[in-house]
Structures are given as C-alpha cells and as structure tokens.
Amino acid sequence: MASAPFHSDLGLPAEWRDYVALTKPRVMTLVVFTGACGLIAAPGNLHPVLAFTAILCIALGAGAAGALNQWYEADIDALMKRTEQRPLPGGRMTRDSALYFGVALSVFSVLLMGLATNWAAAAGLAASILFYVLIYTIWLKRRTPQNIVIGGAAGAFPPVIGWLAVTGELAVLPLLLFALVFLWTPPHFWALSLFVRTDYAKAGVPMLPVTAGNRATRQQIFGYSLVMAAAAVAPWALRETGMIYGVSAAALSLLFVALAWPVLRNQSDDPAAMAPEKRLFKYSILYLFLLFGALVADRWVMA
Known about the structure:
Blueprint: H1 16-22, H2 25-41, H3 48-72, H4 74-77, H5 95-116, H6 119-140, H7 147-167, H8 172-195, H9 197-203, H10 208-211, H11 214-237, H12 243-265, H13 275-302
C-alpha cells in the first residue's frame, strides 16, 4: 500500500520534537560516542568545559548533517515505510524550515568548535558535514550502489575530530580509527538494507541488494567483515594501543565474523527469514560501542 504523498508546503507549525527528530538522535548517539572516545584517547589535556563543548559540537554537527539529509531526501523518505513518518514526509514541517535549521546548526557547530578548541578540529567537523550532505546524500546515494561504501567516510570523521580537538594535529591512531569505522559501515548498513530491500527498491535508491541482489550483498558483507576485523586489531599490532584494546578487538571482531558467516550462508530473500541479518545489524552497533569503550579503558590504564 502506497504511503501518503509528500507535501513540502503545508506550513504546519513544527514542534520541538520534530526538530529533534531531524537530527537523527539514534544515529547521533554512536557518532558522539566515537567522537568522545577519540577525544579521551588523545594525548594531552583539555579543560573539562572545553572537552564538553567539543563533544557538543560533534553532536550538533551530526544533527545538522541529519537535518540536511532529511531536507534533501524528503521525497524518497515519503516512499519508504521506515521513514514515512519523519517530520517532512509526515507533513509536520516545511522543507525550508529543515534547510534553515540544518544550515544554522552547521555554521554554529563549526564556529563554536573553532573558538572553543582549534580550527583544525573545526575544519574536520566542517568536512564531515559537507561530505555527508554533498558527497553521500546529494551525489552518491541516488547514483551508485557504492553509496554507502564511499559515503561511510562521513561517519568515520568523529574520532578524528575528537583527537584534533585535543591535539590540533593528526597522528597514526586516529587515522586507524577512521579506517575502522569506514570499513565497519558497509557490513553494518548492508545488513539493514537486506531486510528493508523493498523500501529502497520502491524509492528507487540503488542500494546493493537492489542492484546486485541479496547473494552478492551477503558476500560483500562477509568480505568487509574480514577486512574490518583486520583493521580493528591493527592499532594493537602497530603498538598504538595496549593489551586491553587488543584482546577486546580480537574477541569482538571474531564474534562479528562469526555472525557474518550465517548471513553469508542464508539463501532466503524473505525478510521474515532474515534473523541472521538482523542479529548482525544489532551486534554491529554494540560492537562499535564496546570496541571504542575498550580503547578508552586501554588509554586510562596506560596513562
């Protein structure tokens, strides 16, 4: 059954909850956490007030990117069951309101980051917002099944930004963390896309399961899981972290690959038979929380 058509000019007064929903708070949680862990893991000291401000700026920047994403994708959000009740397709907000909110939040977060910490961190935050909006949302998402692979770089910025907020310069460890999140994104997102494939097909979004089929997607998920696991233990292998992180990364990544194996073996195209995909998707979120938590614990012990 088709959803209600998207209306962009309803002019209905939006509630504060609608503005919060624009920021994609559930997605923001993981972004803020990895950014905070990058900040904590960085050498040096940052005043607690400034550290809180830096984390707040990462949250605001992520929210701004989410708002601009929903502004641009309001038409396809209206066609997908899991997004049809967002503020814009739900008719609770105009597109102009979302655009102005997203732009204002972007500018404010970047300026505040620069003034509170340093302009290297502000530049990193600006780059992450622009990459997510311009490269992923506007350029890639509707054009190529590799959208989430290349676009995953946007979500990999936060630990680097957190590190820059403290040190003002790049180093090996934040770049390794960037690579880890970058490689984690495809198996995480493709696991989701497998059991919401019909939504993407209906909206005309060329996600990998739509263009290449479920079997090819499952093969890609497993392949990326192996490479991601190697990237996860790389900081330990290169002696950038200690034993706590190393053992945690090895164990958590082994479980990730173990959960990706039944996804590879699953041959069903029925969303009701995709329990392995749903398990992997849920675990992938927990995986990143636990892995970055282990990084912080490791740094505290080594300090």
